[in-house]
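Following up on my earlier thread - several people asked me to post the actual chain instead of describing it. Fair enough. Here it is, all 281 residues.
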Amino acid sequence: MLPLRVILTYAEKQLASGPHPERARWDAELLLYHALGRDRAWLLAHTNHGIEVKQGERYDALLARRATGEPIQYITGETEFYGLPFRVTPDVLIPRPETEHLVEKALELASNFPAPRIVDIGTGSGAIAVALAHHLPNAQIAAIDLSHSALAIARENAKCNDAAIRFLEGDLLAPVAGEHFDFVVSNPPYVPNADRASLSVEIREYEPALALFAGDDGLEVYRRLIPAAFDAIIPGGFLILEIGYGQSPAIAMLLARYGFEQIDFVPDLQGIPRVACAQRP
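Reply from S.P.:
Thanks for posting it. Predicted structure:
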């Protein structure tokens, strides 16, 4: 029976020939924790420990999936966002650190509202809505998605994190027609179709296209969402959107065209405008 330290060395070599050799050791360890149902502290204390046959077979299967480029988060079925645990499957986008800037902006502005009414458009895994509900116990939050399967995952995540959220299936704001909100928030699809080939294999081959791509210029959803949001937001309320690289000038024009004011952009850690924020006068 081979010790874990030797098994890890073999696993690292196997993943080093995959799409992300720079992550080979880290991925090998993470998948081993998952296969064994243990954590890193246990592994460090048991490097000479052996592995059972069934555990070894499970680990081999996980490594094979990762070697093709399948995201770690889909393999393990879990990830973290804004310090909270989330279940993820190929039915939803994997929440990313960049989206935390949107949550931070929403929390900053919502602190001025005693019981903010918020709707999250294209909720996916529910990451934004759940994070907001966790930090805004007095908020009334609705979350909408076109995908029935995505909503099932979002409901699981809300339950896991004890978040009270109203989930609705439908296109953009259609399921809440006639309702009004203090905040409309969204991380919509914004990748131009032509950029598909430039994406990593993890994104291109595994994440849901419906949640990624938005026409020839990536602005297709914004053109529909921004005017619809203006009608749904009360005077003094806010629209907060995640946006793609280089899209801030076009988004600023759209927001101004449909009547929004106080248009501002929040940069990510690389200084790239990542979140658009605008107020309805």
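The chain has two domains: 4-69, 81-279. That should answer part of your original question.
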